[in-house]
Each structure stands twice: as C-alpha cells, then as structure tokens.
Amino acid sequence: MQSGNEEAFTLLYRHYSPLLYTNILNMVHDQLTAEEMVQDLFTRIWRNRNAKAMGENFQGYLYRVALNIVHDFFRKLKRDQQLFEHFQHSIAESYKHIEEGVNSREATETLIRAIEQLSPQQRKVYQLVREEGYTYKKAAEIMNISPLTVKEYLSSTTQAIRRYIVRNADSTTFLLFALLALFQLFSK
Length: 188
What we know:
Largest sheet: none
CATH superfamily of the largest domain: RNA polymerase sigma factor, region 2, helix turn helix motif
CATH topology of the largest domain: Rna Polymerase Sigma Factor, Chain: A
Strand content: under 5%
Number of helices: 8
Order of helices and strands: HHHHHHHH
CATH class of the largest domain: Mainly Alpha
CATH architecture of the largest domain: Orthogonal Bundle
Number of strands: 0
Helix content: over 70%
Structural class: mainly alpha
Radius of gyration: 37 Å
C-alpha cells in the first residue's frame, strides 16, 4: 500500500474496517456518522500512506488516527452545541424583548382606551396629575376647582380605569398594570 498499490489498500480496508466501524459506532452511537468516520479514516490513510509511523506500526497508526477522528468529532459536536445554545439564548432574549414590547404596547393601548372612557373633567385631572405631575393644588388652580374635587376626580378616575382594565385586558396586560400600580405606589 505504501508504494501506491490499490489492491493492498483494499485488502487492508476489508480487514480493518469492520472492527473499526464497530468500535467507532460504540463511541458515536450513529451508524451514518460511524460509516463516514471510517471512510474519512481510510481516506487519510491513503493520503498519508508514505508516513514513517504507518510503516513502523500500521495497526497502531490506524487506531490512533481513528481515535483522533472520534475526538475531533466530539470537539466539533461540543462547539456546535455551545454555538447552538448561544444562538438559542440570543433568539430567546430577542423574543423576550419583542414580547415585552408587544405587551407594553397592548397595556398602553388599553390604558388609552380606558382614559378615553372618562368624562372630560376626569380626563383633565388624570392628565394634569398622573401624566404631567402637577400637585392637587396646582391642578385645582388650572381647572378652577378645589383640591378636594381634584382628589375625588382622581379617585373616581383610578377606579374607572381599574374597572375598564379588569373588563377588557388579557391576563398579561392586567399583570403589567398591576406591576405598574405597585411601582407607582412605592415610588411616591
């Protein structure tokens, strides 16, 4: 075989390939992969037929190359698995951001619809106090009403919005509103 005799190579292939295939199959647990590895092994043997180590101990050389092929396979498999996990994590994070954006937009749209259901006075109080951050006293001055009336409007407005959300929001949107309400409660 080392001198290029293809018949000698074929005899070596027929002699060693069944045992190598069985050993490789026991390691990789996939018939097609084991077949490809045996083919790769003998392709390498043919290409490197002039290697000195092959002539000194052919069987040892053969098993060492086979073992290297299996190790390379598992290293590549591990790299591919890590790449897949990284890709999967990236996709999950992207989806999470998209989902959060959709949920936030749905929550905002539900809140807007709830505010649209309010009377003009309630809407104005909500806008001045909740959206623009005015105090009850300042909102009362702007609207030319008493601070107590602003407080009552705001209380009835909050209840009306809450009722609208409970009636019209899905569970995810409702949860977002609950979290926003808690945040607003603790941020005061």
